[in-house]
Structure formats: C-alpha cells, structure tokens
C-alpha cells in the first residue's frame, strides 16, 4: 500500500468518525495522516541531499514507480 493510498483511507475513517467510541483513536488517525503527509513531502523535497534513512520503505509500504 502506498502512502497516498493510506492517507486516503485514513482520511475517510477520520472524517466519518468511525472510531469516536474509542477514546483517542480519531486523534491517533489524524496524527498518522499528518505524519505520512510530512514524510511524503520530505521525500519529495529532499531527495538529493543524501539522507538515505528518510527514504527507506516503511513496513507494509509499496512504492510506485514514477
């Protein structure tokens, strides 16, 4: 699953409030969404500065060929 796909899915769950019954879960989803957005932005903007650790694939992440 790509980061973009994950953000889309989590955004739907957050917007619909599916997990409002579990205290803090929607906040955790929101935090995860924002962290993934920031990682995606970081990867796009700093690809040429040699920070290889930032570009390692996350567990469960698939990478789309561009």
Structural descriptors:
66 residues, mainly alpha, single chain
Describe the structure.
The protein has one domain (3-55). 53% of the residues lie in helices and 0% in strands. The chain contains two helices and no strands. It is elongated and about 45 Å long. The model has no long low-confidence stretch (mean pLDDT 80).
Give the proportion of residues in helices: 40-55%
Morphology: elongated
What amount of the residues lies in strands? under 5%
- Estimate the mean pLDDT confidence: 80
Unreliable spans are none
In whole angstroms, the N-to-C terminal distance is: 15 Å
Q: How many helical elements?
A: 2
Biggest β-sheet, characterized?
none
Radius of gyration: 14 Å
Order of helices and strands: HH
Total strands: 0
As for the number of domains, it is 1
Assembly type of the shown chains? single chain
Task: Classify the secondary structure makeup into a structural class.
Answer: mainly alpha
How is this structure best summarized?
With 66 residues, this protein is an all-alpha fold. The chain is 53% helix and 0% strand. The protein has one domain (3-55).
Helices and strands in order:
Blueprint: H1 3-16, H2 25-45
């Amino acid at each position: 699953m790509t980061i973009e796909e994950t953000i889309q899915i989590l955004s739907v769950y957050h917007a619909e409030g599916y997990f409002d019954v579990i205290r803090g879960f929607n906040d955790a989803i929101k935090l995860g969404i924002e962290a993934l957005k920031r990682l995606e932005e970081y990867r796009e903007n700093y690809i040429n500065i040699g920070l290889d650790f930032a570009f390692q694939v996350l567990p469960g992440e698939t990478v789309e060929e561009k």
